[in-house]
Amino acid sequence: MTDKRRIFSGAPHEPLVAYARAVVSGDFIFVAGTTGRDPVSGILPEGAEAQCINALAIIGTALSEAGASFADVVRVTYYLPDRREFEVCWPHLRAAFGAAPPAATMIEAGLVDPAMRIEIEVTAHRA
User: Fold this and answer.
1) Is 0.70 surpassed by the pTM of this model?
2) pLDDT for 5 beyond 70
């Protein structure tokens, strides 16, 4: 049986909704859908680009705590309420994933808060 370790970012919604920012199971790290809302201050910047930058920073922190990095990400799913806002995020995604791009899917979907413009979910595998 594989032990599981949960990683929390301190966001107030984690205990309210009953989720962890990430779960480490064996060599896999599953990072929950992450928006650009700062988990400590609660501030959500305007626009998909600024929110993407924040979401990637939050994800990067969770991956680091799990002993991984963006180079270990094997799967990413992007959720945006308007697919036309995705292109401004591309340079930041290229910077995060670099020479190790994961398999990816972008889904146009409503998010919990209409002010949220992007949510990013990743799965990583430590070799």
Assistant:
1) yes
2) yes
